[in-house]
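Case study 2.
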Amino acid sequence: MAQLDVLFSGYVGERTASTVSLIRDEDLVAIVDPGMVPSRSNILDPLADLGVAPDDVTDVVISHHHPDHTINIALFPSVRIHDHWAIYHNDRWTTRAAEGVQLSRGVQLLETPGHTPQDITTLVDTEDGSAALTHLWWFDGHGHDPYAVDHDLLNRHRRRVLELATIIVPGHGEMFRAGRTAP
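Prediction:
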């Protein structure tokens, strides 16, 4: 089973910060959505508390290309970066669709457009259940997405994720149980 730790729970309002997570499974040490936070120490200190140095990180996954989810990628200079259509590593751009990509035995990428046409969800098998790290929800119970490019598509992918995951790690909030929310 993969280990999932939320390094920072994000928020939106007068200020904006991304939820930043760490996944460890087999040889994979991945950061998801290293975006805007009050200080880089909000990412690096919890990582250090877990015994992980930035150079230990092997991969970064970005749910979509908005700066509030990507701005701190450079904290992890040696990583492979995964998005909806490619893997980027140093000077290599390897095109591939994200749907069904296995980063490890317990970590899979899903294409889940709705907030943007390029959104992906990271599905993680943990001891507590299957967790979806996703921007399909901003935070627990936040049903309306004012920036969604396609609300019907967003809701269709929410239903898909709810069939697969028992835990939701939203784009800008604390982790919550999937049964507490609906599309």
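The first helix runs from residue 41 to 49.
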